[in-house]
Amino acid sequence: MELNLANFVLNLRQQAKSAWPSMVKIYIVATFVIILAEIIGKMAGLTSYILVSDATEVAHLSPYTGLISNLCVLGWAASAGICFFTAFVARLNESFYQRWFQFFVISGIFSTWLGLDDLLQIHESIGEFMEGLVVSAHHPTLSNLLEGVVFIIYFGLFVVYTLYLRKHIQRTEYLFLVLAFGLFASSIVIDTLISDTAFSGKYLLEKIPKFLGIVSWLVYFSRTGISTIQHYLFTPNN
C-alpha cells in the first residue's frame, strides 16, 4: 500500500512537472471566463447567486424545464468538440492536416457560436435591440419581422460557410448536412411566420425540426470526423 501510494505521488509530481505550462494557460483562460461572466452579470444587474446557479433552481422550476432546449445546446457543444478534436488529430498526418484542418476548425468555431447563440438567445437580443431603435413600445409583429431579419443574416452565414468549404463538403457524405440545413430552415420559417399565441403547439412545432436539425448536424460531423481519421491514420499509404 505504501509503495502504491509512493508511486502515485511520484507520478503526480512528474505529471505536474511536464504539464504545468499547459495548466497555467488552461486555468488562466478558465479564470478569465469566470471574470468575464461576472462582469457581464453585473452589467445585467444579476447577483452572483443568479449568475452561478441553475436557472431551474433560481426560478424554482422542475429540473426538466427546457429539456429539449438543453439537449440542443449539448448537441452544438458535442459537434464543436468533435470538430476541434478532429482538427487536433489532423496534425498527426501532414496530408490530413493540409486537406482537413481548416474545415474542422472553422466548423468547430461555427458550431460553438451557434451553441452560444442557442444558450444565450443572442439572436433574440439582437432583434429586441433593433426593435428598440425603431419603436419605443414592444410590438409582437414587428418583433417577429426583425427577428426574421436576424435569421436571414444567419442564413447568409450558412451560405458563406457552405460556399467557402464547398470543396471539403463535396468530399463528404453530406446528406445529413443537407437535412440539417432544411430542418433549420423549417424551424426558422415556423418561428418567424407563426405568432407565439397562434396555437398552443406552436413551440413544439418549432422546436422539433430544430432539434432534429442539430441531431443531423452532430451526426454529419461525427461521421465525417470518423471517416477522415480512419482514412488518413488507419489506412495504409495515406
UniProtKB/TrEMBL annotation:
- Can you tell me where the transmembrane regions are? 26-52, 64-88, 100-116, 145-165, 174-194
Which keywords does UniProt give here?
Answer: Membrane, Transmembrane, Transmembrane helix
| Superkingdom | Bacteria
The protein's name in its UniProt record: Uncharacterized protein
Please name the taxonomic classification of the source. Answer: Bacteria, Bacillati, Cyanobacteriota, Cyanophyceae, Oscillatoriophycideae
